[in-house]
Amino acid sequence: MIIETNKTCEIGFSRAVKHGVLVFDGPMGTELYRHHIFTNRCFEEINLSDPGLVKSVHQDYCDAGADVLTTNTYGANRISLEKHGLADRVAKINAAGVQIAREIAMAADRNVFIAGSVGPIISSVHSEDQLMDIILEQVTALHSAGVDVIIFETQPSRVALQLCARAMQQAPEIPYILSCAIVRGCESVSGETVHRLLAPFDVATQPVAVGINCGLGPDGMLEVVGQAMQVTGLPLIVQPNAGTPKDFEGRTIYYCSPEYIATYAMRYVNLGAAGVGGCCGTTSEHIREIAKMVKPLSRARSPQAEVLQNLQPDVVEKLDMPLSERSRFARKLAHRQWVTTIELVPPRGYDLSTIIEKGKTLHRHGIDAINLPDGPRASARIASLIVAEHLQNEARIEAILHICCRDRNLIGMQADLLGCAAAGVRNLLFVTGDPPKLGHYPNATGVFDTDSIGLCAVQRRLNRGVDLGGQAMEPPTHAVIGVGLDPTVLDRKREIDRFRRKIDAGAEFAITQPVFDPAFLKSFLDEVGDCPIPVIAGIWPLASFRNAQFLQNEVPGVVIPDAVMRRMEDVSTRSRDEQIAVGIEIARESITAIRNFVAGVQISAPFGRIEIALAAVE
């Protein structure tokens, strides 16, 4: 059976899933169950007998921010419907499911896609050809009714995935997703690994994406995502359950909070996932929190348009000022001298007296520079540039100013870079930034006109006397271009690729996320190879076991080895000073271990206590 189709739906969905991050909805089945539709009924038949209920579930997910609505057709195939005496209503039930979702999508104020759900089709009495005909019968009904993509959900094995893929070769114009269930560790119910399940499919028409859904909660799914990203080059859709269900007074309850699953959704996206949503136990509230956290990242993840315009006629780029002449910090880097910097967070108010006094103290102790984050964890604080200027003028210590891509468009960022030049703040560290949902301002929006790679390119051009629009600018800026580096990220290949692109764009030094495992950092740098720019290692002296738990669970990019966690836990019942002493001891050990293969360290000052940071380096 060859199905003729219109390719417009393929182009739309394929482009969206490849070039951004889509928020999928949550489950239909558990939502119907919550509305007292019990498991002895055919959930898919509700499309006909109570379409208003199905519509209300779709509406809740759409209102929550879902970009993809999944039809209530998971079991709407001939074999499953036959158990309810509905085998002759395959086409009608699937068409009704699409129509209900389509009504919600058409009324939305944004582009919302419809995914036609096809669940596992399991039978021991049908041949492979018969099973493919059963699949195509449902696919035909869904496509004829107007879905944008077919999603084969919760497939239990490689054999099942291959069966779906082979069936879709008879409908080559219909885009489809193959999604499998992982139920324990990183294996399917059939005991197959992620590498086996998601290995490339030997078919002419490939799926537009692959997915993992059901079986595991948000935390268990994280390792699966890391493995999946190493296997497939296709966009990955991730839909975890809301944790592990618990029986309570005859009910099955999921205790995973919306904030918890949303935090993990961000981690999936940071690993490279192209779509996130929910499976069993998730609700519209879970999807709402996922959307708030993930949608700003979509702009950060999207391929950025060329941020620099072509040079205007007769405009020629000047030569960069030598690195050693741009700042005292840069001079030490250029001469391969060890550098020590300490990170301080700008205050929430505008009284700078305390941070200025801390700057003076650090200067007296020979610290080379103070790192100033830009809205760390999406918090609203005084402009870091103002703090940097005051520190340099009053405390006589240089600043390394972080510039975040989240909050400004390209025009605003260029204005700030020129402001840095005017203020004499030359050491800059470019970061893409956390999504606003991480902070206390969830209704703020992220701009993300470009990422840290694009911003490096902008600053390098400004250093050469040319602005964003390709026009000559006098005088050129003389910034020292720094970038962030995360050696603990699960998708190491992607991080190294981005690091190399940052260097190509103009990066001249890098500062890592906090390092608690020196061997891990060394193996990362060994994999990078001959690194052409100096790398400064982030060091965080732990203040307590609770502090270690917070960093491990709440701060993206921080990974603390079990051995370090145990050391902090062993002293968790002792005094605060004794716990701090162990944290300082761990930090000193890390500095000693990394000294021979990095250019210096950036020490964080827990809770702004510079005496802890100084103790780690003295």
Structural class: alpha/beta
Detail the poorly predicted runs.
Answer: 1-11
Net shape: elongated
Radius of gyration: 27 Å
**Average residue-wise pLDDT:** 89
* Quantity of strands, as a count: 18
Which percent bin holds the helix content? 40-55%
**Sheet having the most strands:** 8 strands, parallel
Strand order of the largest sheet: 1-10-7-6-5-4-3-2
**Number of helices, counting only DSSP H or I runs of 4 residues or more:** 23
Tell me what the structure shows.
The chain is α/β, with parallel strands linked by helices and 618 residues long. It contains 23 helices and 18 strands. The strands form three sheets. The chain has an eight-stranded parallel beta sheet. An eight-stranded parallel barrel has the order 11-12-13-14-15-16-17-18, surrounded by seven helices. The protein has a two-stranded antiparallel ribbon with strand order 8-9. Strand 11, helix 14 (353-364) and strand 12 (369-372) form a beta-alpha-beta unit. Helix 7 (128-145) packs across helix 8 (158-168), helix 17 (452-463) packs parallel to helix 18 and helix 22 (576-594) crosses helix 23 (610-617). The protein is elongated.
